[in-house]
Amino acid sequence: MGEVRFGVHDVAGIRFAVSPLWETVAAFRATADPGRHAVHLPWIKSVAPLREDRSLAGRIAPLRAAAASPGFTTPPPRCPLAEFEEELAPMGAAPELAGGLRSWWEAAVRPYWPRIRAVLEADIGYRTRQLAEDGIQEVFARLHPSLHWTGDRLVSADLPPAGPDLGGTGIVLAPSAFAARCHLLAGTGTAPPALVYPSRAVGGLWERRGTRADGLARLLGRSRARLLALTGSPSTTTQLAAVSGLSLGAVSQHLSVLRDAGLVTGHRYRREVHYTATELGTALLERS
């Protein structure tokens, strides 16, 4: 049984992040053990040929060797919505491995990343609301069945026996679509450690949505229905305007209505606001 010890400042330093680099490694491992990742079988079947593709096999060989080691992991994410290349940069000292990671990301993960990221950000949205309403103890209580909050410690069989004392650095909580259990990523330099945990709502990740969207269009109007569908992955007002052909003003008006109805939510990242369908909005899309 392992644990992570929290101080007063550590509780205040808890934050959430998404790690495309971690997901890339975890996705590769999932293809090697489909039986433990049945929920991902549709994706695994679609990318399985890539592992044997001659042109790709040589480039991902360093990743194959590294992923076979149980002790291999990735650095903890440094910012909430890091890009893949940002996370890969610290691994520049291992160029062959970095090249293998990049090749697998481009071929097997990046084409599906908007869908994966939307699930992870929906999980973060749920946890942050829970944190605001019920406090951190309730967040940990529902994060994963293996985790238990006892006094000032987070205890789990998935944590290392000699768990760290955070010492005021806080901790990053990172949902994962491909994680089957919790993992602790050791802090590096000024970056605090990260606790990777299985995300909510992964069961519907690879489900195909129905094509009968007329009912939703009649309910919301075609422009709002289309914008709601486009927010399946986080998008800015400018991006939505470019894809939909609507003016920036029209997109802003429609997003305001969808937000007031609880169908989309906006998260500021740096200088942009990224809009994402909420659980209610996603459920409405899936039933349309």
Outline the structure in words:
Helix 10 (222-230) packs across helix 12 (248-260). The strands form three sheets. This protein has a four-stranded mixed sheet with strand order 2-5-7-6. Strands 1-4-3 form a three-stranded antiparallel sheet. A two-stranded antiparallel sheet has the order 8-9. The mean pLDDT is 85. It has helices at 8-12, 20-32, 41-52, 54-67, 84-88, 95-109, 113-134, 136-143, 214-220, 222-230, 237-244, 248-260, 279-287, and strands at 2-5, 15-16, 148-150, 153-156, 172-176, 183-185, 194-198, 264-269, 272-277. The chain has 13 helices and nine strands. It has three domains: 2-16 and 118-203, no CATH class; 20-115, no CATH class; 209-287, Winged helix-like DNA-binding domain superfamily/Winged helix DNA-binding domain (Arc Repressor Mutant, subunit A). It has 288 residues and is an alpha/beta fold.
Rg estimate, integer Å: 20 Å
What is the element string, with H for helices and E for strands? Answer: EHEHHHHHHHEEEEEHHHHEEH
Total count of helical runs of at least 4 residues: 13
User: Structural class, judged by helices and strands?
Assistant: alpha/beta
Summed up, the domain count is 3
Largest sheet: 4 strands, mixed
First-to-last CA distance: 46 Å
Mean residue pLDDT: 85
Helix coverage percent of residues?
40-55%
Proportion of residues in β-strands: 5-15%
Strand elements, count: 9
Taken from the alpha-carbon principal axes, the silhouette is globular
Give, in spatial order, the strands making up the sheet with the most strands: 2-5-7-6
Note poorly predicted spans: none
InterPro entries: ArsR-like_HTH, HTH_ArsR_DNA-bd_dom, Metal_resp_trans_reg, WH-like_DNA-bd_sf, WH_DNA-bd_sf
Protein name: Winged helix-turn-helix domain-containing protein
Organism: Streptomyces katrae
Keywords: DNA-binding, Transcription, Transcription regulation
